[in-house]
């Protein structure tokens, strides 16, 4: 078992005190969906520990808005299996490489997404830094580099650093439609089954883009950073030039999500 902790929850307080949460009327709870809960949490500045409690309250009031999936983890999950209902969130339909050969940027303000595609800050017009991770690079034969990425993804360790205890699955990897390489994988948290999406796109000129994003919630408790850093360090050992996500490179993200 790669994680000796039987309850690898990156959230140190899985049972939030209801007295510290804003009071919500039954009607408002009934109208909440996964995305609505995230938007409300952003407006009220609710902590991430409220995510499961908020969605659970909405279910108790109506049960018509959001339907968690059955308690089924990926095959490579750690033990024991979390027995409760899961909330993976809607699978994104707009992933992949665009016509310019770029992965999707992080357009949401929530600190739970990183991408090698940078956009301008709508408030200042300057390049936005907190969601941006510079592309990695490789030297040598592209086919060997693509094989190395495949090896690192397939050898990913569920439960490392208390994340992704629900396992992972690589749904796509290999030659991209317009040349180069593309991989897409899903990762699941041990508790509640929240799912995140990871993409890696590499081109024959040695550029490796990466994107990792949570589907639901606001804070991610450093899950996306830990996942990217884990993969980056494994590729670095194979000769890649990588960039990691640290308190120095992304201070606001770590201030909001760390230390975990």
3D architecture notes:
- With about 260 residues, this protein is an alpha+beta fold.
- Helix content is about 25%, strand content about 15%.
- The protein has helices at about 25-30, 35-45, 50-60, 140-155, 225-235, 250-255, and strands at about 115, 135, 170-175, 180-190, 195-200, 205-215.
- Strands 1, 2, 3, 4, 5 and 6 form a six-stranded antiparallel β-sheet that branches.
- The two termini are about 20 Å apart.
- Mean pLDDT is about 80; it is low at about 1-70.
What is the strand and helix layout of this fold?
Elements: H1 26-31, H2 34-44, H3 50-61, E1 113-115, E2 136-137, H4 142-154, E3 168-175, E4 181-188, E5 195-202, E6 207-214, H5 223-236, H6 251-257
Antiparallel strand pairs: 1-6, 2-6, 3-4, 4-5, 5-6
Helix pairs in contact: 2-3
- Number of contiguous helices: 6
The structure class reads alpha+beta
> First CA to last CA: what distance?
21 Å
Beta-strand portion reads 5-15%
Number of strands: 6
Q: Spell the H/E element sequence.
A: HHHEEHEEEEHH
Give me the Rg, rounded: 19 Å
Rounded average pLDDT? 79
Low-confidence stretches: 1-71
Q: Could you say which overall geometry the principal axes of the C-alpha atoms support? A: globular
What kind of sheet is the major sheet? Answer: 6 strands, antiparallel
Helix content: 10-25%
């Amino acid at each position: 078992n790669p994680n000796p902790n039987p309850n690898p929850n990156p959230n140190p307080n899985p049972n939030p005190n209801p007295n510290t949460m804003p009071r919500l009327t039954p009607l408002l709870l009934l109208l909440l969906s996964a995305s609505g809960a995230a938007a409300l949490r952003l407006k009220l500045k609710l902590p991430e520990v409220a995510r499961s409690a908020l969605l659970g309250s909405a279910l108790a009031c109506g049960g018509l808005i959001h339907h968690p999936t059955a308690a089924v983890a990926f095959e490579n999950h750690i033990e024991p299996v979390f027995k409760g209902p899961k909330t993976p969130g809607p699978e994104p339909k707009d992933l992949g490489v665009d016509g310019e050969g770029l992965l999707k940027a992080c357009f949401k303000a929530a600190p739970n997404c990183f991408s090698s595609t940078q956009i301008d800050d709508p408030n200042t017009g300057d390049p936005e830094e907190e969601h941006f991770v510079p592309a990695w690079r490789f030297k040598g034969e592209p086919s060997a580099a693509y094989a190395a990425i495949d090896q690192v993804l397939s050898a990913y360790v569920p439960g490392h650093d208390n994340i992704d205890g629900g396992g992972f699955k690589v749904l796509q990897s290999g030659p991209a439609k317009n040349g180069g390489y593309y991989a897409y994988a899903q990762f699941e948290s041990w508790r509640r089954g929240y799912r995140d999406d990871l993409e890696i796109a590499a081109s024959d000129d040695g550029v490796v883009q990466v994107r990792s994003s949570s589907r639901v919630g606001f804070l991610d408790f450093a899950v996306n950073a830990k996942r990217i850093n884990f993969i980056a360090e494994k590729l670095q050992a194979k000769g890649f030039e990588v960039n990691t996500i640290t308190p120095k490179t992304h201070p606001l993200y770590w201030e909001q999500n760390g230390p975990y």
